[in-house]
Structure formats: C-alpha cells, structure tokens
Amino acid sequence: MKISTLFLCITALLLSGCGTMDMRKISVEPKISTENIRKSSLRAGLVLKEHFTDYKYNFETGKQLFLLSKVRGEIDIGKNLSNALYGIVSSKFKSVSMGSNINEIDDVDIYFVPNIKSFTYSPPYTGLSSHSASFEFETEIFSRDGKLQHRINIKQEGSRSNFNQLVGKTNYDMACGAVNEAIDNALKEFTDKLNEFY
C-alpha cells in the first residue's frame, strides 16, 4: 500500500508539467522591511533610467523532459523593483528626489544609480527539478559633486521545488516564488549595505 502511494506521487511529479506550461506574466511583488533601517540626515536622489524601470525578462525554452510543449512567459521586473528601491531609500534618508537622469535631480547630498546586470529564470527540466531564478543588480552611489562613493554589487538566487505541488502549488505559484525570493534576498542585502555605509 505504502509503495503504491509513493509510486503514484513520484509519477505525478515526473508528469507534473505535461501539457502547456504558459506562465503568462509572472508577478514580481517585492517585500521590503523598513523596521531595522537607521534614518540618515542626508538628502538622496534616485536615478531610475528607462531601461531599469521598463526591464522585462521574456523566456521560451525548448521542450522540457517529460513536458509536451515549450515553456514560455514574461517577467515584468523593473516597475515594482523601482517602487521597492524608492521605498527603501525614502525610509533611510531625510528626503528623496527621483528622476530618469541626474539633471532632473536638484539639491541632494548623494544620489543612487541602480542597474540590472543580469536576470535569469529557469523552469524545471524534469518533474523532480526546481524552478530557479538568479538576479544581479548594481547600484552606484555618487556624492553631490559626482564622485563615486560606493558601488554595491549584489547577486541572489531563489528556487522552488516541484515537491510543493504535493501541497497544491501550481507551476505559476512556484515560478513566482522563485523569482520573488531572488529579488527579496537582493533587496534585503541592499538594505544591509546601506546601513553599513550611512
């Protein structure tokens, strides 16, 4: 009896991706905590360039093992990531000005220029592998006179095992979980770095 149940569970996992695995738009919803952020008296500027705020990651794989079709989808990262960074910076500094380039920002002590260096998302190749995401971004911090003060380079990962399907999670849920875990981990590290520097 126990062996048959185990066999059925493993078979279900191996075949979990059968059919179309169209992820649609994977939702990026960063969770940020401002509880442990120490307030600085500096005035900050946040330069959010268009290629950052509009950053999207489109993916389409070949046929995966045990899947009957390609896996495809779109991850809109830039918009909500920009909002999350604004939330972190505004909770850390006395005031925050925002613009798409430095000429739009006046009367600040420092300004931040974030850039997404790389992002990847990989769906599971088999029913037993994981959804995984990797996110790397860099933020340059300049003084009012344009001198580089700090360069923060962060790379974080996230994953969700297909064993989550045993508790009713869908492929879409697990993809969102892996992507958001990578981004949340990166934002937490970014917050910790700010507390080290200011």
* Average pLDDT: 83
Q: Helices and strands: which structural class?
A: alpha/beta
Strand content: 35-45%
End-to-end C-alpha gap: 61 Å
Determine Rg (CA atoms, Å).
Answer: 20 Å
Note the overall shape: elongated
Largest sheet: 5 strands, mixed
Q: Work out the helicity level.
A: 25-40%
The assembly state of the depicted protein chains is single chain
The number of distinct β-strands equals: 8
Q: Low-confidence parts lasting 5 or more residues at pLDDT below 50?
A: 5-20
Order of helices and strands: HEEHEEHEEEEH
Number of discrete helical segments:
4
In order across it, which strands form the biggest sheet?
5-2-6-7-8
Give an overview of the whole structure.
This protein is an alpha/beta fold and 198 residues long. The protein has four helices and eight strands. The protein has a five-stranded mixed beta sheet with strand order 5-2-6-7-8. Strands 1-4-3 form a three-stranded mixed beta sheet. Strand 6 (110-122) and strand 7 form a beta hairpin. Helix 3 packs parallel to helix 4 (171-197). The chain is elongated. The chain starts with a helix and ends with a helix.
State the gist of this model:
The protein is built from four helices and eight strands, in the order H-E-E-H-E-E-H-E-E-E-E-H. With 198 residues, it is α/β, with parallel strands linked by helices.
Q: Could you list some keywords that capture this structure?
A:
single chain, 198 residues, alpha/beta, five-stranded mixed β-sheet, three-stranded mixed β-sheet, 4 helices, 8 strands, 37% strand, elongated
